[in-house]
Amino acid sequence: MDRSERYVITAETLLRAYAAGVFPMAETRDSNDLFWVDPEERGIFPLNGFKFSKSLYKTVRQNKFEIRVDQNFNAVMEKCAESTQDRPDTWMNEDVFRLYNELFEMGCAHCIECWQNDELVGGLYGVSLGAAFFGESMFSRRSNASKVALAHLIARLRLSGYCLLDTQFVTDHLASLGAIEVPRRTYHLLLDEALQVVTVAFYSDPTEEELSSELEAMFLQSRTQTS
Predict the structure, then answer these.
(1) Cβ-contact 99, 11 below 8 angstroms
(2) Is the pTM of this model over 0.90?
(3) By CB count within 10 A, which of 66, 71, 128, 207 is most buried?
(4) pLDDT tens, 98-126?
């Protein structure tokens, strides 16, 4: 089939898919098509369950990275899609870049960026809908950069009143930070609950005092849970 004749997914279609509990992926960066995924076991990140180690909290407190929010969305996507030794190819194709950049322009997608010496060295991006945030991908080019980005994301989600952080799948890396798997039915119930909340807006610019206080609360909560 000629590319011009195939069904083109729109940003609005993508939002409806997220609301239904499914998300898109491509086989490779060069794939012409997307497929929909609804895992039997879904990864989520309990917003009160982030495993905040002493060393990571120290890194956050030392401000080793300059944190920017929603400043270089496409650059974050490009970094997430780069080939690595562990992942020579990516699920992010041309349509993925088009769709999520459209969602960003609509205010429905956001990114957390870690900068060091004016270089983008870590970050993540995802989709916001109701009181749910759907984490899509993250990258790190310096030690702990993606972990710092995740800590800042969770702090902002907590300050904003979100109740669900979807990670799609759970890797060993995410599990070490507190991500868990739940059955598909449980996930859909959590999602339905989160979508009922219509007053939530992504808090991208908290004050330094608000952010510092929330990160400290996350750390103390993590210490209590592990003691």
Answers:
(1) yes
(2) yes
(3) 128
(4) 999 999 999 999 999 999 999 999 999 99
What is the Cα–Cα distance from 112 to 133, expressed in whole angstroms? 13
Is 117 exposed, middle or buried, given 0-12, 13-18 or 19+ CB atoms closer than 10 A? exposed
As a whole number of angstroms, the distance between CA 175 and CA 76 comes to: 23
Cα dist from 193 to 44, 68, 131, whole Å: 14, 30, 8
CA 25, distance to chain mean position in Å, is 15
Beta-bridge partners for 130? none
**In whole angstroms, what is the distance from residue 76 CA to residue 68 CA?**
11
Q: What is the DSSP letter of 28?
A: S
DSSP string, 105-125: HTT-EEEEEEEETTEEEEEEE
| Distance in angstroms between the alpha carbons of the first and the last residue of the chain | 59
Burial (Cβ within 10 Å: 0-12, 13-18, ≥19) of residue 197: middle
Element holding 149 (H helix, E strand): helix 145-160
pLDDT number for residue 2: 45
**Using an 8 Å Cβ cutoff, are 120 and 76 in contact?**
yes
| Host H or E run for residue 34 | none
